Amino acid sequence: MAETASVHSFHYSGRDLFCEDVSLAALAKKHGTPLYVYSQATLTGHFTKLDKALAPLPHLVCFAMKSNSNLAVIRTLADLGSGFDTVSAGEIQRVIAAGGDPRKCVFAGVGKTEEEITFALRQDIYSFNVESEAELKRISKVAVKLKKIAPVAVRVNPNVDAGTHAKITTGTYDNKFGIAFEQIGDVYARAAKLPNLRLRGLQMHIGSQLTDVTPFRKAVEKVVPLVTELNARHGFDFFSIGGGIGIVYDPALASGEAKWWKTPEGKKVLTPQIYADALVPLLKPLGLRILLEPGRFITGNAGVLVTRVEFIKKTGKKNFVIVDAAMNDLIRPAFYDSYHEIVPLTKKGGALVSSDVVGPICESGDFFAKDRPLAKVGEGDHLALLSAGAYGSVMGSTYNSRPLAAEVLVHGKKSAVVRRRQPVADIWRDEALTPWQ
Ligand SMILES: *Cc1c(COP(=O)(O)O)cnc(C)c1O
């Protein structure tokens, strides 16, 4: 299958940047900035590409909603038949609030509380992805109390290095996730003796932002024999191979055509078809339902953060572009040293200027780009930080008493506010003075 199609729906028409058929400058004018804008066509396109590539297998794509949990995003994916990978009772409640089906939710995370387990059991979720033996015991205890059978899958740590950033590598023995490969058989044997558990499958997730299929293939190759053995013993329904499919963050949109499938050096990156071609032959003989937990792959390129230039400040050799978005709106550069392509909403001619794009927060970590060749911009111009749809607004905070940004979803010519800009007084709404003040 040729995968040359552009990968997201942000493009220039004339000099102006559009999301689908809507001008981003018009949205910025109408809703103010900082403003997250999401493309429904991109969300749908990515989900569908992956879903189709996996068609040779019985499967369920469980969107990892921690990457973007806006109700309208959840609803878009729920309407396509997506399940959800959740990490808290709050996320399961969000699925319900969006009109999704909790029976298509898996519940992951190393620290599930009794209250969360109780809630999830009452909602008849598809499976708990269990991270420790203590958690198996806790789930069993709660299930006995509720007179329910809890579906569980243990997360195996295959000890395969995903080779990504240390903060997003999860599949080696240096981190807190899952149970060591060598111990899994014994853990299942003990779990089988606990009351009210149904050993429904096995789960793994080796890390995030993988742009090469090799670690996925290695992990699946290593774990498939274990799944076969455990399935024979316990009668599984599914094997979850986790999420982690990476995206390209620097696709040179400026060239006029989004080259999402290629790095700037022209190297082809991970596509749903490459992923499926490598993994389907390994997984098919299992005869099990395969679960996937993609987050970033679905939402990453589907969103941008629009921001306004407040000041240009020149100090020494540096040209600082001070914008009205900050690390509280998008923390990825500060947190993971992430790269986001930055483009003007209205294309400019002239030479590029090496610029540091920074926010107004009193932290030197509050930057979006350093020494970046950027079109010359001035006060009042607008910029878009691309590929901000995953781990963007969901990691937003009100640090510096800055309200959470507004979010808009675009669908063709239509656009709708899917989160209004937080009114500033809401930031301290739940605070109080003491009785002695
Ligand atoms: C974060 C996470 C995912 C999603 O990761 P992406 O890189 O966004 O695809 C999937 N599964 C688990 C268990 C996770 O923790």
In short:
Helix content is 26%, strand content 25%.
| Count of β-strands | 21
Spatial shape: globular
For the largest beta-sheet, the strand count, sense and barrel status come to: 9 strands, mixed
Q: What is the gyration radius calculated from CA atoms?
A: 23 Å
Explain this structure to me?
This protein is α/β, with parallel strands linked by helices and 437 residues long. It has eleven helices and 21 strands. It has two domains: 10-38 and 301-428, Lyase, Ornithine Decarboxylase, Chain A, domain 1; 108-294, Alanine racemase (TIM Barrel, Alpha-Beta Barrel), CATH 3.20.20.10. It has helices at 24-31, 40-53, 71-78, 89-97, 114-122, 133-146, 184-191, 214-234, 272-283, 296-299, 332-336; strands at 10-13, 16-19, 22-23, 35-39, 59-64, 83-86, 105-107, 127-130, 150-157, 179-180, 197-203, 238-240, 289-292, 303-315, 318-323, 342-344, 352-358, 367-375, 382-385, 406-411, 414-419. The model is unreliable at 1-5 and 252-261 (pLDDT under 50).
